[in-house]
Automatic annotation (TrEMBL):
Protein source organism: Rickenella mellea
Residue stretches making up the BTB domain: 5-72
CDD domains: BTB_POZ_ZBTB_KLHL-like
Residues in coiled coil: none
InterPro entries membership: BTB/POZ_dom, SKP1/BTB/POZ_sf
Name of the featured protein: BTB domain-containing protein
Lineage: Eukaryota, Fungi, Dikarya, Basidiomycota, Agaricomycotina
Signal peptide: none
Length: 323
């Protein structure tokens, strides 16, 4: 509440006294509102001589947006409240066309919900390195994918959907749809969103099975021309061990049933644990082939959700975001 403010915003029985110039400078909606021909004095709602505008926004979200406009904002991800703070700002900056603030919010959203495969690989490593939060009930970044799906829909940011839906398919259904029902840690998906989830989940299962079967079917393609093993026998045996590991150890596990996680585990097994070991040349060729499969799966995700490919889906200003 600024004593020298000249506009009062009221929502949920809470009033904020701020400055028209500050709002108009940052928000196209408020700028347009304040330039409309003024009504007669008898039609103006005032408080202590100041014009009053009634809005219909959550009071905490409006407070956070106004604070960001005056003092700036530093987004972070230490617990669920941080995401809810970010989501509220993203929604209201979209509603009131506060473009710079919306861009900052989206850039941070992309950092915790990647839109590029390279960033997703980094995100996965970061998520694994973080300790699971027992307080919030969610691992880093502490926002369940369903909350991101709802936010992406509210702010017209479809490019946030593929990663969020993919994270749903990687997790166990119980974690998505049974745990924390009726709490702030989840939101219910619409029937259309559920259909998208089911379709993507099936495609990811097929992709995973195809990759694991390919470990045997394409075994010869992993043999480098510079193979150091006699006739490639040791390397072929190593690739057979990798497939056995994938089928018996990784494939049955729900949390790692996603193809991206499986491919990562397969690479780690071949490089660090497999006996017999493949030669360095064949190992490099295998890893390159596996990474190509990993990227190809990522590239297909938007199409399975009925969205355009990544190149068309991501706005230019967000294609190089890395935070």
């Amino acid at each position: 509440w600024f004593e020298d403010g000249n506009i009062v915003l009221i929502t949920e029985r809470t009033a904020f006294c701020v400055h028209k110039a500050q709002l108009a400078r940052q928000s196209e909606v408020f700028a347009g509102m304040f330039t409309i021909t003024q009504p007669t004095v008898s039609e103006i709602s005032t408080f202590e001589g100041r014009d009053v505008v009634h809005v219909h926004d959550p009071v905490e979200d409006l407070k956070n947006v106004l604070t960001a406009l005056y003092d700036g904002v530093d987004f972070k991800s230490h617990h669920l409240d941080d995401f809810l703070h970010l989501a509220g700002i993203a929604r209201l900056s979209t509603k009131y066309m506060i473009h710079q603030l919306r861009q900052r919010a989206i850039r941070y959203l992309i950092s915790i919900n990647p839109v590029t495969h390279d960033r997703y690989k980094e995100w996965t490593a970061e998520a694994i390195s973080r300790v699971k939060s027992t307080e919030d009930g969610e691992p880093w970044p502490y926002a369940h994918p369903s909350l991101i799906i709802r936010l992406a829909t509210d702010i017209n940011a479809d490019y946030l959907l593929p990663c969020a839906f993919y994270r749903l398919t990687v997790a166990q259904p119980k974690h998505n749809f049974e745990s924390y029902i009726g709490t702030g840690y989840r939101t219910l998906l619409s029937s259309q969103e559920m259909a998208r989830y089911v379709i993507l989940d099936e495609h990811m299962r097929v992709s995973l099975l195809s990759f694991v079967r390919g470990l045997s079917d394409n075994r010869d393609t992993f043999l480098s021309k510079e193979c150091e093993s006699l006739k490639g026998d040791n390397c072929c045996k190593a690739f057979d061990k990798v497939q056995e590991y994938a089928m018996t150890t990784i494939f049955p596990k729900g949390p790692l049933r996603g193809p991206d996680g499986t491919i990562r585990k397969v690479i780690d097994f071949l490089r660090d644990k497999c006996k017999p070991t493949a030669c360095s040349a064949c190992t490099r060729l295998f890893i390159a082939s596996a990474e190509e499969s990993r990227r190809a799966i990522w590239d297909q995700i938007p199409g399975y959700l009925g969205l355009p490919g990544w190149a068309k889906l991501i706005p230019e200003e967000y294609k190089c975001v890395k935070m």
